[in-house]
Amino acid sequence: MISIKRYLLFFLLTTTTISVYGQQPDPPGQVTDPNNAVNQAYLFAHMTHQDYGRLYYSVSLDGLHWKALNNKKRVFEAYKGHPDITKGHDGRYYLAGNTSDSSPDIVIWVSSDLINWKEHTVYTPVLRSTPDYEDALQRIGAPKVYFDESTSQYILTWHTPHKEGTSEDPERYWASQRTLYVLSEDLKTFSDHPTKLFDLGMGTIDVFIRKVDDQYFAVIKDETYPTLYWPTGKTIRIARSASLTGPYSAPADPISPNFREAPMLIPSPDNKIWYMYYEQYPGVSYGLSIADNLNGPWYQASGYTFHADWDKYSMPASVRHGCMITISKEEYERLVDEYGVLENSTSE
After folding, report:
1. Is the model's pLDDT at 144 over the cut of 70?
2. For the chain, first and last CA: distance in Å?
3. pLDDT, tens digit, for every residue of 53-99?
4. Residue 77, exposed/middle/buried by CB under 10 A (0-12, 13-18, 19+)?
């Protein structure tokens, strides 16, 4: 018969293990009183696994727990692309897209309320006019737009390859992707020709830029295939610069595991922490890395497992590439009033 001492020891070890499992620390950056939040709400504009390249919305009040809008239906039928939104010089929102990677055009839409969108401009870059990139193929991937308040300029970025893939080496197409950009003051007229953003001999895609204090950060997907000799391949990394257009540093160590893409970056509700989301493709899951500054270090939170006692963040099932932005509580309520929020949207 088991002794009382042994029973008590077994009980303590068991309950301690369960307690540790159930008391994982919550991600930093939250606020006890939502009224004290610097960043009151968030919008996730995205596509879905079943409806790739079309526009859907999810929202959050804490940047960690997301709920689908519009009963998980499209919110804007005319839109196609990998959605990316910036708030512009005039207080309106600008949305970048393209009908497909083989399309020569980038379409910019504008909205004052994130609900009613109208076409703002169609820009067709002459890719072979890019200096030192005359062999560029006329392909435009995942255009992204960012308004830099300090220079009063928009930077429009995208990736363009210069090699076709082959059956023997399909990866050479992706390894040949280079990030290009143009500048604009109004997203109506653009700089004379596209320019390479980086002087790097590596593939880069899904690049977007943010300015924090006096430094610019380019968030990058390293598009080289991972090997023993390139272990950073297919990860999310960050390069830095004192200027919007560079020169940028070599990308720092990976933030994510391999085979991650489509990064998104938001500040926490208290505005002291950064949340970096990224997709494990193709549409498998989302990861979240957390840091108190963009120079790192970063750690990964647990989530998107659909186990409530383990997840520290949650997202609707089947969400794919997109962007996340901060919005006001009034904008959040207006979106919820317009589309309705799906309280339980974490299942198919």
Report:
1. yes
2. 50
3. 999 999 999 999 999 999 999 999 999 999 999 999 999 999 999 99
4. exposed
- Integer Cα distance of 68 and 72 in angstroms: 6
User: Using CA atoms, how far apart are residues 267 and 250, in angstroms rounded to an integer?
Assistant: 24
pLDDT tens, residue by residue, 200-218: 999 999 999 999 999 999 9
Residue 8, phi then psi, degrees to nearest 5? -65, -40
* 216-224, long-range: CB < 8 A, 24+ apart: 216/240, 216/241, 216/242, 216/243, 216/244, 216/248, 217/294, 218/248, 219/263, 219/265, 219/276, 220/179, 220/251, 221/260, 221/261, 221/262, 221/263, 222/251, 222/254, 223/159, 223/174, 223/175, 223/177, 224/175
Query: What is the model's pTM?
Result: 0.91
Residues with Cβ within 8 Å of 116's Cβ and at least 6 positions away in sequence, in order, are: none
**In order of start, what are the domains of the chain with their CATH numbers?**
29-342 (2.115.10)
